[in-house]
Amino acid sequence: DRDTDKKRIEELLEENMVLEIAQKQSMNESAHLGWELEQLSKSTDLADSKKSFVFELNECASSRILKLEKDNQSLQNTIQELRDASLNSRESSLKFVELEKENQQLSKKIEKLQNQIEKEKQSNQDLETLSEELIKDKEQLQVVMETLKADKDRQIKDLKQENDHL
């Protein structure tokens, strides 16, 4: 009986050591999962700050577009006034040539402003696309984080049950 008890004790001690090693590994995995969760939450915070930055850029670009459109309208009015003035006044042909040059310069400025407006609109669209991608990434990270939390909780529960069983 004593020999049988000794063998049984040795087996139990051996099994206990294996379980302790498994528990340590599980604890290490849990710590690693916790670290990963922390990293994911940090990247989620980073995505939030990128998102707010994108919205600020959108607002800035929109105000710039409005300003450029106002400048464009003002220049078109000036061109029209110059045309009217050139038609109404019968000054020397030199004055007319100067007005035409000024008109051409203003037309070039208008064209540049329109190009800038188009670029700003494209930039706005790009920023909106980036914002949508960042929001999608954030949602994916949240799903991964919830999955990791569920796995961690399940592992902890399993380890507690094993521990209680032991």
From TrEMBL:
Alphabetically ordered keywords of this record: Coiled coil
One Gene Ontology term, aspect cellular component: cytoplasm
GO biological process, one term: cytoskeleton-dependent intracellular transport
Coiled-coil intervals: 58-165
A GO term, aspect molecular function: microtubule binding
Protein name: DAPLE protein
Source lineage: Eukaryota, Metazoa, Chordata, Craniata, Vertebrata
Gene name of the encoded protein: Ccdc88c
